[in-house]
Amino acid sequence: MKLKRIFVFFTIKPKRLVLLATVLLLNSCIDPVTPEYDYEDGLIFIEGFASSNAGASFVTINESITEFGIRGLNFIQGASVVVENVDNGQSINFIEIANTYVSPQEFMVVPGERWKLTVILPDGRVYESEPEPVLEPVPIEDVSIDYVKELEYREGLDKFIPGHKIIVSFDDPGEGENNYYWSYRSFENLNYCIRCYEGIYRNGKCIPYDLSNRQLRYFDYLCETECWRIRYSEEVNIFDDQFTNGKTISGLEVGKIPLYTNEEMVIEVQQFSLTPAAYKYYKVLKDIVDNSSGFNAPPPAALIGNLYNVNDADEFVLGRFTAAASSVANVFVERVYIDDPVLEGLQPPNISLEPTMNSPYPPPPTQLAPCEESRYRTAIEPAGWQ
Q1: Phi, psi dihedral angles at 22 (to 5 degrees)
Q2: Burial class (CB in 10 A: 0-12, 13-18, 19+), 99
Q3: Contact 241, 177 (CB under 8 A)
Q4: Count of Cβ atoms closer than 10 Å to residue 85 Cβ
Q5: Residue-wise DSSP of 213-248
Q6: Which of 21, 154, 357, 375 is the most exposed place for a label (fewest CB within 10 A)?
Q7: What is the DSSP letter of 362?
Q8: pLDDT of 210-234, one tens digit each?
Q9: What distance in Å separates the CA atoms of residue 62 and residue 375, rounded to the nearest whole number?
C-alpha cells in the first residue's frame, strides 16, 4: 500500500472529505473548491451498483484533478465496464450515457447470484471487484410519503426547506443478521424535453442564434413522446437489526425528498438487503456525510471497498461495487395542493412554435425533441403513474 496516499486522504479536513464522499452517492455532484490541503491528483473513484430493479444499475468512474488551482473530479470517458455472473459466466456490458455507465434496461440481478465488476480504463488500467453475493430482500409491508413544511435545514439557503419524508414498516426476519439500505427514484412528467438558451434546436442539439430581439431569450421543445425526469436519493439511509432482530419495524424514516417542483410524481422506494461488508462501507459513508459539521472530529475510515487494480496491488482505489436485491414500493404523490415555494426557479415556458413557411429561423422548422433515455430520464411509464 502506498503510504503517501493513505496520509493524504486522512489529512483532508472533514468538510472537504464530505465533498469527496458525495461522489459516491447514488445521485451526486461535486462543486469545485479551492484546495486547502496537500491534494493528490489521480485518485480513482469507482462506484457501482447492480440492482434487482430494472433500469437502476449503474457505474460511475471519476479521477481527482486540479485545474487552475481548483480541485475537482473528472468523469472518465471511454472505459469498458462489464459486470459478470461469476457462477455462470454471463457478462453484461454497461453503456456510457451522460457521465454514467448504465446497464441495459432489462438487466437485473437475482438473489443467490454472485456478480463482479471489471473496469478497463482507456489507458489500459484494469480494476476488478471481489465477487458480491445477492441476498434475499425483506418485503416492505407499508410505505407512506408525508409532506412537511420544514423538511431539513439548508446552509446555502440559510433556511428550512419543505419536502416529503419516506416512512416504511416491515417485519425483520428472526434468523441471522440483516442489514438494510434504502434508496428511491422519483419520476416527474416533463413539460418539455429541451430548453435552448440564446439558441434554437437543430439536429439533436442547441445551436447559437441571436434572440436579443425577444423578451424570452430561450426556446422550449416539447417531447416527442411521454417523458419523465428521474431524481435519486441525496443521502445515505441504512439500518441493522442488532437490537430489533425478528421484530416488526414500524414508522421508520428512510428518506427525504426536497420540494424541487410541485409536479405530480411517483416515488419508487427500494429496500435493499446488504452483506455485512457492504453495510460497513455505507456506514462509513453515512458517518462522513452526517458528521460533516463536526470540524474538530477526526475523519472516519477511508472509503475503501472491494475494488483493486489487477496489475498494481499497491494502488489506493476508492469506492465499491455492490450487488443487491430490493423489495420495491411505488407511490403516486399528488402535489397540486402544495403552495410552498419550490427549490427550482420556475421560468415561464416558451414552447417553440416555429412557422413552417416564411420562418425567420434556419430550416428545418423544429417543435419537438426526443426523450433520450438515460439514468435521469425515461420514456417508460413508471409503475403507479396516474
Answers
A1: -65, -20
A2: middle
A3: yes
A4: 19
A5: TSSS-EEEEEESS--EEEEE--S-EEEE-TTTTTSE
A6: 357
A7: P
A8: 988 888 899 999 999 999 999 999 8
A9: 17
Alpha carbons 288 and 297: distance in angstroms, whole number = 11
**Neighbouring-strand partners of residue 155:** none
Hey, CA dihedral for 366, 371, 377, 383, is it positive or negative? positive
Backbone angles phi, psi at 9, to 5 degrees: -65, -40
Distances (CA, A) of 254 to 17, 167, 235, 257, 279: 24, 6, 9, 10, 15
Cell 459516491, residue? 24
Q: Output the pTM of the full model.
A: 0.84
- Please report where in the chains the cell 475523519 appears, as a residue: 299
SS3 273: strand
pLDDT at 290 (0 to 100): 76
CA distance 78 to 8: 28
Burial class (CB in 10 A: 0-12, 13-18, 19+), 204: exposed
**Burial tier of 346 (Cβ tally within 10 Å: 0-12, 13-18, 19+):** exposed
Burial class (CB in 10 A: 0-12, 13-18, 19+), 80: middle
What are the cell numbers at 222? 416539447
**185 contacts 208 by C-beta, under 8 angstroms:** no
| Phi, psi torsion values for 45, nearest 5 degrees | -115, 115
Contacts of 349 (CB under 8 A, 6+ apart): 191, 192, 220
Reported as type and span, the H/E element at residue 106 is none
3-state SS class at 284:
helix
Q: What's the count of helices (H) and strands (E) in the chain, helices before strands? A: 3, 26
Would the pLDDT of 124 be above 80? yes
Q: Which three cell numbers stand for residue 367?
A: 417543435
